[in-house]
């Protein structure tokens, strides 16, 4: 690990000013991902800004009946929050399926959204990686790509976003609140994470010096909240494929349904067009196949991860059977 300086600002405004003034700085909350990256010298910040102790650790109701989640709220606390458990079950289940209990006790809401990919070649600094060093090449394209993406890929990068929480946030249409010396901003989560394109090193729509302050959820949605995660072992493993779903059905007939998928793309994957025609459809395999056909349009395996295409189909069918 390379040497760095450390700062604990007294206010959010001080943190934002310092972050904007130091391009090599990184924010640290729980540090569950950043410290690993620093030990491996994937990340080499010259300065760390500690954003704990800034009062961003509260979960509060919003005026329109939704929920505002502070950026520093720990994953364990959020999963156990009574309002989240009662009204946003898909989020609570997604959080509890991620990492270990010890990690959830440290990991924060903002940090979870900003997790870097777990692609093996991103973490191995002896191997070319466009995400780590633009222009080097992508070792995963011809390498061992079992965990990599099948949707939204480019010739520059086939990494996936690893967060379970972000997939649930996507199906809930969360919004990300930020601040910087330029002011406050609200970013729909649909626009927050980016596809790799020709700049896979740019993973979010955050601007230089911008700090996440909170995530807001809309008023609760009716229906059954489901989070299904397929992984290599029962706990503490990243998703091969995950499905976040909210399905409102009556007597086997769907009133409304929405789905987001993890483990398959550079961002939580959602195809709203596949959901819009579901009102009045029957729960069951034909509906699952129709939705999967639209979600998987343009899907491409890279050898070791070809299995993710049928796995997504099967996972979606299992979710609709559970609903």
Task: Please outline the helices and strands.
Elements: E1 5-7, H1 12-21, E2 25-28, H2 34-39, E3 47-50, E4 59-61, E5 67-70, H3 75-80, H4 82-87, H5 89-96, H6 101-106, H7 109-113, H8 120-123, H9 165-171, E6 175-180, E7 183-188, H10 189-192, E8 211-217, E9 224-230, E10 241-250, E11 253-262, H11 285-295, H12 308-322
Helix pairs in contact: 5-9, 11-12
What descriptors fit this protein?
323 residues; FAD; 5-stranded antiparallel sheet; Uridine Diphospho-n-acetylenolpyruvylglucosamine Reductase, domain 2; Enolase-like, domain 1; alpha+beta; 3-stranded parallel sheet; 12 helices; 27% helix
Question: Any overview of this molecule?
Answer:
This protein has 323 residues and is α+β, with helices and mostly antiparallel strands. Among the domains are: 5-52, Uridine Diphospho-n-acetylenolpyruvylglucosamine Reductase, domain 2 (2-Layer Sandwich), CATH 3.30.43.10; 224-322, CO dehydrogenase flavoprotein, C-terminal domain (Enolase-like, domain 1). The chain contains twelve helices and eleven strands. The strands form three sheets. It has a five-stranded antiparallel beta sheet. The chain has a three-stranded parallel beta sheet with strand order 1-3-2, covered by helices on one side. Strands 9-10-11 form a three-stranded antiparallel beta sheet, with helices on both faces. Strand 2 (25-28), helix 2 and strand 3 (47-50) form a beta-alpha-beta unit. Helix 5 (89-96) runs antiparallel to helix 9 (165-171). It is globular. The protein starts with a strand and ends with a helix.
